[in-house]
Design goal:
By secondary structure, the protein is mainly alpha-helical. The protein has a domain of about 60 residues: Alpha Horseshoe (Serine Threonine Protein Phosphatase 5, Tetratricopeptide repeat), CATH 1.25.40.10. The protein is built from 6 helices and no strands. α3 runs parallel beside α5. It is globular, with a radius of gyration of 12 Å. The model has no long low-confidence stretch (mean pLDDT about 95).
Amino acid sequence: MLKFYDEKNNKKALEIADRLLQAYPEHIEVMSFKAMTLNQAKNFTQAEFWINKALKKDFTAFFGWHVMGIIKKSTKDYEGARSAYLQAYKLG
């Protein structure tokens, strides 16, 4: 999945994420990674949906907060990005 994300092959990365979520619907890292991939594809609404869903499962997941920071930065919500990165720093 990471290989396809790095190659910016978002369609393939999302297919893999969806298959993993079918098998492991509660997996926070996969939800976060799906959000990161959707963010890269400029689908910010869905990206925020998936990262919020991941953080609702585990509010202490530092990776999820880091991804939230990436998404907030992409949408030019710099204060939200700062808060998310600080939360990730505190938890990581």
